[in-house]
Write a structure and sequence with these properties.
The chain is α/β, with parallel strands linked by helices. It is 42% helix and 14% strand. The longest helix has 23 residues. It binds pyridoxal-5'-phosphate (PLP).
Amino acid sequence: MLDDMLDYVEDIRARPVWQPIPDDIRLSVREPLPRAPAELATVYDQFKHAILPYTTGNAHPGFMGWVHGGGNPVGMLAEMLAAGLNANLGGRDHMPIEVERQIVRWMRDLFGFPDTASGLFVTGTSMANLLAVLVARTDALGIAVRSEGIAAAPERLVAYVSAAAHGCIAQAMDLSGLGTAALRIVPTNHRHQIDLAALEDAIADDRRQGLTPFLLIGSAGTVDIGAIDDLAGLAGIARRERLWFHIDGAFGALAMLAPELAPRLAGIASADSIALDFHKWAQVPYDAGFLLVRNGTRHRETFASPAAYLRREARGLAAGSPWPCEFGPDLSRGFRALKTWFTLKVHGTDAIGAVISRTCALARELEAAVLARPELELLAPVQLNIVCFRYRGSDPDRLNAKIVADLHESGIVAPSTTLLDRGLAIRAAIVNHRTERRDIEALVDAVMALGRAETARRAA
Ligand SMILES: Cc1ncc(COP(=O)(O)O)c(C=O)c1O
């Protein structure tokens, strides 16, 4: 299995990025609960036949959809070791937790957070953003909110985020009980950054109405086009208005590792909390989301839930307080830290920074290729590693949606789509460390060929 998997990764370029799942394959896993044992080799054959060829494809250099990391073999091996150890990182006194704590220390250093800051691995940034909203809520209302609920609080809390923010922020407001109506969606400027003047107006408006602004969320890399909000400007407003300043840095926060990009994150060190994913630009295999919180005490107060059966001791296996389960809702937690630790140590963060820089350079090459072709149209400024463009023509939304579906089925490249002001865009997010210039060229060539063919078909 190990040899096969290493070969799979090594030879990934020879495979289609993605391919449609034939009906018989889809049905082949629909089996009754297997009460009797089966040979490992038989099940492995089924894996090779029915699962391996039909995955998302984000390990492939032609994958450019959404924001998916490519993974890496070192992380894969570490994942195998972690599964062998079968460690539970909810708590207790063992070295796997020390590895997670070391990554917390590294992230504190990277983002200029104090020694008292806390951190936690979670599934992904959607979860990290939710936890951050909950910590900010506790900060605003005090820990009584945990027993009394937000309905008992006299304050009506409101939060602020830009129109370009990821949907999981609104979902976090929903899940936290604060409600999406308590989230103010602030307009963006022409660079898709939050409009600071509009933000200040919205805060003033809410205060006039007797509401309590409590949370400001900035984006370090918006999902649609990779815009970075003016984080220093946001930090200043958060300080003046006494708001919790959270940053959704799902992929963009780790641009701190690329020396020429790090200055664009100026202000990130002033955040109260940062959410990020190691499984995106850092290429750690899924999943490896992370939350960093400046005020570790407030973080712990938000989630710690003592129980007789979780008693801490000064020595023995039940020592090692505080336990990670005091910083989030999960009591059972896998060893996500190990694949992250191995990846960062074996490759070195300079190499990861170089990948981040290279993907941005490839995005600029794609931008230039789009601008050089009259049939293509750039739909948003390229700021990091994401390029939004389309093939010109009548009914462009339908035309470009068709081109993207055809690209997927071609197996050559897999961008995704998004809806911008001017309509549906072909969205190429270059995240994978395996992506090269030839993949960008393949994307452009394939879009041109499909666009021309569709235009000719329509004319006929
Ligand atoms: C800016 C931003 N925020 C949040 C998320 C959600 O992250 P995850 O999918 O790890 O939950 C993404 C995912 O692409 C993102 O780009």
